[in-house]
Inverse folding.
């Protein structure tokens, strides 16, 4: 992608554009949550994919945070895929994540 800005600045510009267009939220990297929350406000919903518990491999997620870190930064919803879906015991994996939070 030929993005003319650094990722944090680009994410902010896209979130502001979404907000100005009347959208109620955005999907963003956990790395941008704190900045977007501060600028876009508490009513703007932030969904964060790529969240990884401390015990899970990051895999292809380059810009991840732990569930606790993402929540503390201001995420409204966490997308935690493979640490749960690829687990031998998905229920136990979810319980571990909840304990970690």
């Amino acid at each position: 992608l030929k993005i003319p800005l650094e990722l944090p600045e680009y994410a902010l510009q896209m979130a502001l554009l979404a907000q100005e267009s009347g959208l109620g939220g955005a999907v963003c990297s956990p790395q941008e949550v704190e900045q977007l929350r501060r600028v876009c406000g508490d009513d703007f919903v932030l969904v964060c994919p790529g969240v990884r518990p401390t015990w899970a491999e990051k895999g292809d997620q380059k810009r991840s945070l732990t569930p606790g870190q993402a929540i503390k930064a201001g995420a409204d919803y966490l997308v935690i895929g493979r640490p749960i879906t690829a687990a031998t015991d998905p229920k136990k994996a979810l319980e571990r994540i909840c304990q970690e939070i």
Remarks:
- The mean pLDDT is 90.
